[in-house]
Amino acid sequence: MSGTPSTEPQSNEPQTYQHRWIDGKAIDLPVGKVVCVGRNYVEHAKELGNEVPDSPILFIKPASSLTDISTPLHLPTGQGEVHHEIEIALLVKERLHCADAMDAQWSMAGYAAALDLTLRDLQNTLKEKGHPWERAKAFDGACPISGFVDVRGISGKQPLEISLQVNGEMRQQGNNTQMLFPIFELIAHISHVFTLEPGDIILTGTPKGVAALNSGDVFVAALGNVLRVEGSVA
Ligand code: ZN
Q: How far is the CA of 97 from the centre of ligand 1 (A)?
C-alpha cells in the first residue's frame, strides 16, 4: 500500500458503531464489551450435540465486533460457514458488580435484536483442539445489532419473542421462557464474573435453527411486536 490513504472505508474495516434507539437517535453511552452466553436454550444445545450446562457458558466479544445490523453485513470469507444466531440483547446503563437479579433489571437501558455471528467450522476445530473461540466469534463485525427499545416499552409479564427470517423463511423463533438461565438472573450471574459497565451489551443465547448465512441473503429480525429490522448480506 502506498500513496494517500483512501477516504472510502474498506469493506472489511469496522464501521463506526454507536448505540442508537430504534428511531435512530444516538444513545449517550460509550460502546463497551459484549458478554454472551452459550447454550441458554435447551433445543439449541441439542441441535449442536452439546450437553446442557449447569452454569452459564460465558464468552466476550470486543466492542470492535459491533456493527449496525441494517447495513449490509460483510462476512469473513475462506474460513467455512458463518452461522446466524439471533439473540435478545440488552444494553447496560449502570455499573453492575456482584448484583442480584433486581439490580440487574434496574440497570438496563434497552432491548435489541442481535446476531452472534459464528464461524461454525472454525469454532468446531478450535473446540476440538481446546483452543479459545475468539477467532470464530469475536472478529470485526461479528455482532450486528439493531437499535434499542427503551426497557419501559417491554412488558416483563409476557414472553418476549425473538425471531429471524432468512430469504422469507422462518429460521429461528424462541422466547425468554425457554431459557435455562432467565435474563436478569443471567445478568446478575455475569456481574459476579465480569463487572458490567455503562454501554456494555449482553447477549442472552440463541434458540434452535442456527444455519449458514450467504452472500445475497436478506433477513428480518424481530423482537416481540416492538422491533422489526431488515438486513442483508453483502
Ligand atoms: Zn450465541
A: 23
